[in-house]
Amino acid sequence: MSQSEKYSLVISVYNEEAVLPDFCANLEESILDLDKQFEVIFVNDGSDDQSLMLLKSFKNASRHDIKIIDFSRNFGHEAAMICGIDHAAGDAIICMDADLQHPPALIGRMIGALNEGRQIVTMIRDKRAENGLFKNWFSQLFYRLINRLSEYQLDENASDFFLISKEAADVLRNDFRERNRFLRGFIQIIGFDKISLIYNAPKRQAGQSKYSLFKLLKLSTNAIISFSKFPLYLGIYVGLIFAFFSIVMGLFTLWQYVFGNTPPSGYTTIVLFLSLSFSVLFILIGIIGTYVGYIFDENKGRPIYLVKKIH
Ligand code: UDP
Ligand code: MG
Questions:
Q1: Which of 14, 62, 167, 179 would bridge with 45, disulfide CB 3.0–4.6 Å?
Q2: C-beta 55 within 6 A of ligand 1
Q3: pLDDT in tens, 27-53
Q4: Is 158 in the pocket of ligand 1 (CB under 6 A)?
Q5: Spacing, Cα 97 to ligand 2 middle (Å)
Q6: Same domain for 157 and 248?
Q7: 99 lines ligand 1 (CB under 6 A)
């Protein structure tokens, strides 16, 4: 790509007042060094701290083209990213976090890969030291599960730090408008010329992680539901297993009834069998309910995000 090409940076911000001054300074410097044309889009995802004010003063001080999209409330990281992609006018778009875990110094390397003809550049974390044992374990479990259940193979250490060309962005803008999204999964399955670059993810520089355990669980459920129908078929397999046991138990009871000395007393068996099968049944109904809920959400067709103001 030539010098006249423009690159869009999409940065989602939710209550990042502690880290924004550092991030903005770092970003300004990194992209000045690159000497290319940038458009920086901050998506303020309903922050209730000083983030918006900090962004506005950065906009006034910066030498770059800065846009701030202010959401009407918190819609979540995924919604913020897709909004940024929707509003980006660049020939390539780079999504990144505002907490300096996605170092702006790597933007040059990503653009380099683009210039070599790649249309999707995914940044792969080298290590996740920042996250603690539990988050690492949870993330490993999640990827193992989703890769088992889904026909696609997702990279375990892929992050929300990626570059996509205008063409790939158009696919996300036009064809992946699901309300329940898993963007880093989508970009791995839409094809195009891809490359993964390994980077060393630093610790979050300041402030707290905005992904609570509950939000992580929700994101994981979203991902599994949008990538796999297998849980829906679980009932068939469980049903077959239960049918097998019912036949064995039925034959045994019948045999005892006809040939045994005393009529069969099956109280324990009945209690165990019934409570077990009811628990399984309720769990399966829950799984179906979850899918139905998602279908309902998609069907309503409500917007993924609402913009209060664009600065
Ligand atoms: N974020 C957001 N909306 C949310 C939660 C997070 O825009 O509801 C942003 C957050 O400001 C950060 C990025 O998404 O820029 C990643 O969040 P975080 O660093 O808390 O996640 P982690 O790195 O711990 O997975
Ligand atoms: Mg982070």
A1: 14
A2: no
A3: 999 998 888 999 999 999 999 999 999
A4: no
A5: 6
A6: no
A7: yes
Rounded to 5 degrees, φ, ψ at 10 are -115, 120
Do 29 and 176 have their domain in common?
yes
Mutate to test the pocket of ligand 1, among 73, 134, 211, 215 (most ligand atoms within 8 A of CB): 211
- Name, in order, each residue with C-beta under 8 angstroms of 201's C-beta and a sequence gap of 6 or more: 101, 102, 125, 126, 127, 128, 129, 130, 159
> The domain containing residue 280 runs over which residues?
230-300
Task: Answer yes or no: is 311 within a domain.
Answer: no
Q: Ligand 1: does its nearest atom lie under 6 Å from the Cβ of 139?
A: no
Confidence of residue 92 (pLDDT cuts 50, 70, 90): very high
For residues 61 and 150, state if they share a domain: yes
**Ligand 1 closest atom vs CA 81:** 7
Domain presence at residue 222: no
Please tell me the predicted confidence (pLDDT) of residue 1: 46
Q: Are residues 105 and 51 in the same domain?
A: yes
b/e for 132-162, b at 16 or more Cβ within 10 A?
Answer: eeeeeebbeebbeebbeebeeebeebbbbbb
Mean pLDDT of the chain: 90
Point out the ligand 1 atom lying closest to the alpha carbon of residue 75: 8
CATH number for 24: 3.90.550.10
Determine whether the shortest distance from the Cβ of 78 to ligand 1 is under 6 A. no
| Domain C-terminal end among 177, 208, 239 | 208
Pair 274, 190 in one domain? no
